[in-house]
Amino acid sequence: MSAEDLEKYETEMELQLYREYRDVLGLFTYVVETERRFYLTNSVDLQVRSVDNGEVFFEVTMQDAWVWDMYRPARFVKNVRVVTFKDVNVEELAKTDFELPSDQ
């Protein structure tokens, strides 16, 4: 496979992933971003933890999530647990964020 073929394949995979994201977005309430992944979910629990040396880390658990990962064969995940020392962003989606405008 040439570099051009690989780039074309990855571009197609990204486009397919974006279309899937667009199709499932309305099913979820929260967007969760970690340093490695992007998730859509309806159930998220974020706990701030600390270790003996004073460092802080985050433990995030989600149920019935969708994962933005083009190399993953199944993007729907029953249970997710993320432990990280990096930032975690949790946002609640407004229903107007993904409603299509009506024709006028």
Describe the structure using short key phrases.
alpha+beta; 39% strand; six-stranded antiparallel beta sheet; globular; 1 helix; DUF2469 family protein; 104 residues
Give the topology.
Blueprint: H1 3-24, E1 30-33, E2 38-41, E3 43-50, E4 56-67, E5 76-84, E6 89-92
Antiparallel strand pairs: 1-2, 1-6, 2-4, 3-4, 4-5
Structure write-up:
Helices cover 21% and strands 39% of the residues. The chain has one helix spanning 3-24, and strands at 30-33, 38-41, 43-50, 56-67, 76-84, 89-92. Strands 1, 2, 3, 4, 5 and 6 form a 6-stranded antiparallel sheet that branches. It is globular and about 50 Å long. The chain is of the alpha+beta class. It has one domain. It comes from Actinomadura soli. This is DUF2469 family protein. InterPro entries: DUF2469 (IPR019592).
Task: Note the gap between the termini.
Answer: 48 Å
Largest sheet: 6 strands, antiparallel
The fraction of residues assigned to DSSP E strands is 35-45%
The helix/strand order is HEEEEEE
Number of strands: 6
Mean pLDDT over the full residue set = 89
Number of contiguous helices: 1
Are there runs of 5+ residues with pLDDT below 50, and where? none
Class by helix and strand content? Answer: alpha+beta
Radius of gyration: 17 Å
Principal-axes shape call: globular
How many distinct domains? 1
Percentage of helical residues?
10-25%
